[in-house]
Amino acid sequence: MSISKTLRLAASIALLTGLAQAAPTPPEILIVDAKSQPESLTVAPGGILIVGSASTPFIYKVRPGQTTAEKFFDASAEPAGTFFFGMLADAATNTLWACQLTPVPDATPVKRHTALRSFDLTTGAPKLRWNLPGDNSTCNDFTIGPDKALYISDTANSKIYKLPAGASSADLFLEDRALYGIDGITFLDGILYVNNVFSNNLYRIPIDAAGKAGAPVDIWMDQPVKGPDGMRAFHGKLLVAENGSGKISVITVHGDKASVMVIKEGLKTPTAVEPAGDTLWIAERGAGKAVSMAMPAW
Q1: Whole-angstrom Cα distance, residue 66 to residue 45?
Q2: Domain ranges of the chain
Q3: What's the pTM?
Q4: What is the CATH number of domain 26-294?
Q5: What is the rounded distance in angstroms from the CA atom of residue 7 to the CA atom of residue 36?
Q6: What are the pLDDT digits (tens) for 35-50?
Q7: Short-list 296, 287, 198, 274, CA closest to 25
């Protein structure tokens, strides 16, 4: 074979290999079955999708270009009924943060013991475990602040906890009646915002120079949101999953007011959003799916 043909063949093989490696991930991925209840999801380096389950003791991962979820962490050795809420990949520390919840047997009304868990983002090996205080708690979601601390929402107890970088246990950051139902939590341009899945409100949490939190400030929105759940900051805006209306909305904050724009609707109980480049991933809990859409231009 001539040198020119050899070079052309090598180039063709390289092109085909590149196309195979760049195979797009399908826009909808069934996480095992329709009853898997993916409550939260996150994207790890390399485009690996990590998804929690609110109906099983498993955390799943989906590799780029694949349609089948595989187990990333198995908590079936925990007490019966254990499941997972919040998921957050922290590439800087190669850590996956997760909220693990376990029902208290025979409790009426329902009570749960919950724990903040962390795992090696590559191997899934357990790292940290911190049990939230109290007889009943709901570790729901978290965000990493400008100070590199992890801020954790406790829905049942109207609380935010703060885990300083490198610490093994968290401290109470804020407790306020307005936070009864706190769910999504994120920093936008250095400012902490939370939403309330019970009252359908959005709040700004003032933080002074000493790092102390003030009373939540209600942000007036120009149209109602219903069941605000997972929330992430992206390009100066807040992305919110509305589990009560089947919508994904973009919220633009202007001081103590905000405008709401719906970018997707018709979903079955969307509970989480995760921006990843030009793609927005959504946990569609009611359908057992992780679904994606192109990130709107704004």
Answers
A1: 16
A2: 26-294
A3: 0.91
A4: 2.130.10.10
A5: 49
A6: 999 999 999 999 999 9
A7: 274
